[in-house]
Amino acid sequence: MSGMDPKEARKFFESLEEADKERAQAYAKDLGRGLKIVRTFPQGVTIFGSARLPQNDKYCKKARELGRLLAENGHAVITGGGPGIMEAANRGSFEYGGRSIGLNITLKYEQQPNPYLTDMLQFEYFFARKVMLAMSAKVYVFFPGGFGTMDEFTELLILMQEEKMPKMPMFLFGKSFWKPLDKFYLSKMLPMSLIKKEDPKIYKITDDVQEIVRAANKIGHPKIKTNYYDGFSSATIPHDS
Predict the structure, then answer these.
(1) Rounded to 5 degrees, what angle do the CA atoms 159, 184, 191 make?
(2) 126-135 and 147-161 are packed helices; what angle lies between their axes, rounded to 10 degrees?
(3) 21-64 pLDDT, tens per residue?
(4) DSSP 225
(5) Nearest alpha carbon to residue 102 among 44, 173, 18
(6) CB–CB of 34/123 below 8 Å?
């Protein structure tokens, strides 16, 4: 509906079948609530990762450390609001007294939001939740995870590749976990010209939580109600090479 004037948009909406109208309204409600909440806190750092890892796992320990360091440096921590990596990151921020945000959705393995949230919003639809996880952040961090984490990573990757969103710093935490995927891209996709040589440079693989904090500090602290998505078509977001 891009480019439609209000009359055209209204006419188009009225032409939908009743079931499709209800569906569109439900989608719009999920997105609208999310957009309203996103504007109430400054863009922070969104942390993705498995809901299934126990809190004594080495990656959960690092996620908790990262959450604390981000809070110490004044950055909001945003997660999907569930257990595992998400809980650990939220806990690190929460225990320091930082802004700890959970954008939750009811799933088989994530029935309840974790207890370390200062702000929580429940979503019905995956796509609306993913839009908010993206729009609420200036830096993205992917800890080891399963299909859900891979879905979130590849969606942000293609959006940045195709310049459908600003190119923000994106980190894959855990070299031993992520290097095989990176090798697949370079040894299989690149020789077949399925990707360009600069595409894998969109993300950076690291074992250093301090490197992530430095990237967030380099961007700084945008004011509440401002967003790097506003007029992003030619935006250049500063981040480490």
Answers:
(1) 85
(2) 60
(3) 787 788 888 888 888 888 888 899 999 999 999 999 999 999 99
(4) T
(5) 44
(6) yes
Say if strands 44-48 and 137-142 run parallel, antiparallel, or are unpaired.
parallel
Kindly state the tokens that stand for 26.
């439900």
Cα–Cα dist 22/37, whole Å: 23
Environment class of 102 (CB within 10 Å of its CB; exposed 0-12, middle 13-18, buried 19+): buried
How far apart, in whole angstroms, are the C-alpha atoms of residue 204 and residue 182? 10
Residue 115's contacts (CB-CB under 8 Å, 6 or more residues apart) are none
Tallying the residues shown for the chain, one arrives at: 241
Tokens of 163: 């310049």
> Tokens for 210?
């301090």
Predicted TM-score of the model (pTM): 0.87
| Domains present along the chain, CATH in parentheses | 7-221 (3.40.50.450)
157, 182 contact by CB (below 8 A): no
User: 170 or 226, which is more confident?
Assistant: 170
| Residue whose entry in the numeric block shows the structure tokens 């650990």 | 88
